[in-house]
Amino acid sequence: MNHPSTNRRLFFSQTASAIAAAHLAGGLKASPLVADRLRLASIGVGGMGSADLGSLSSHSKVEVVALCDVDSNNLAAASKRHPNAKGFSDFRKMFAQMADQIDAVSVSTPDHTHAPAAMTAMNYGKHVYCQKPLTHDVYESRQLAIVSEKKKLVTQMGTQIHSASAYRTAVKLIQSGVIGKVKETHSWSNKTWGYEGPDPEPSPVPESLQWDLWLGTAPERAYSQGHFHPGNWRRWYDYGCGTMGDMAIHILDPVFSALKLGTPTKVISNSSAAPKKSFGMQNHTRYTFPASAFTTNDFLLTWSDGGKMADTSYWPLEGADGKKIGLPDQGSIFLGEKGAVLLPHVAMPVLLPAKQFADYKIEPAPDGNHYHLFVDACLGGAPTTAHFGYAGPLTEAVLLGTLANRFPGSELQWNASPISIPNHEVANALLKRNYRKGFEVDNLS
Predict the structure, then answer these.
(1) Helices and strands (H and E) in the chain: how many
(2) Which superfamily is assigned to 22-160+372-387 in CATH?
(3) Where are the beta strands (DSSP E) in 141-265?
(4) I need a surface site. Which of 6, 112, 200, 379 has the fewest CB within 10 A?
(5) pLDDT tens digits, residue range 77-113?
(6) Rounded to two decimals, what is the model's pTM?
(7) CATH classification number, 163-194+236-366, choose in 3.40.50.2000, 3.30.360.10, 2.60.40.420, 3.90.226.10
(8) How far apart are CA 189 and CA 241, in angstroms?
């Protein structure tokens, strides 16, 4: 058996030669579309990746040409559905061998590999559909937004609900001014992506899994059955982004879209103390934003999860019968000057108090296929609306919240340019992490 470090040295030697040749030939440019079709490569084809691949490939003009997954079982299942696609376990080798045969890439890996895979694709000039949250670290979000704009690539973050009628309707309703300017919003989820138990015990790596590639840019760590691959990586700082990364990126999406929020000025967490290696089970985080066209000055946004809810006593939760209505397990409320909008996740918005808006008819916005909108944009159609120029700042804000939750009670001052937290040295150091040797990526490392 070859030693992993020897294999990596051989691979990077081959890859460096391929990249050098491409630069000598005129640079790494996006390959032209062939015969009005989109040649797609999919990185991460198990779980959500399988769903993403199925939805993207359902477009009549998509041809799946490459599949990549570190788990051979996932790769085998995807290959049965797409027998003409070439299979890989390492996306770097996929690009080195097939860059000129790929137009667009979908990335559906654990969070810590989103940015490395997406940026590698963009470095080769490929359009990218990347699952949410866009990245694992704040710096990565900023860089993806910058590079995608610089290269004029079509991009889309995988917040599928962004294009659904319910969220589009909420955005339209808020911007109509029916509740006036919004003074504050509260968003929440009952999920608990954290871990409070003992350190995971090492266990044998499954034969189907290439653990070193799964770790990728993250620090070396022993495999532990049931803790990381395939389903619980969200709980750990090194790989996931906790409940906020899983759900706030969805639930705050219509808040940012409707209110056209800019960059927060500060964020503070009143969460319970978090473990050293994993996210806490309950979080309560408050952001302050400057006014936008749709908000008042010093607008406040509060996120709660795991059952740690804000004070709801002053919310106008009266239903049509005048009685207090219950709240959904996940959702948002927009508290405006003239009323409120309750937006369950995922359902149509409701105007409150109900009696006040009894005669107001909410006009539903049209539904959209988030995946097909990306494909259409790659083929010259209308631009995407969850592109990295939008998804990057949204993800930055969410990740600042996950960061604040690691330092309860410390108000983090946010400097957006250059990115920094000037009043908290330890938090500031976590905005960008060092990639593991051998897994560096241009424009990120």
Answers:
(1) 14, 16
(2) NAD(P)-binding Rossmann-like Domain (3.40.50.720)
(3) 155-158, 182-189
(4) 6
(5) 999 999 999 999 999 999 999 999 999 999 999 999 9
(6) 0.91
(7) 3.30.360.10
(8) 14
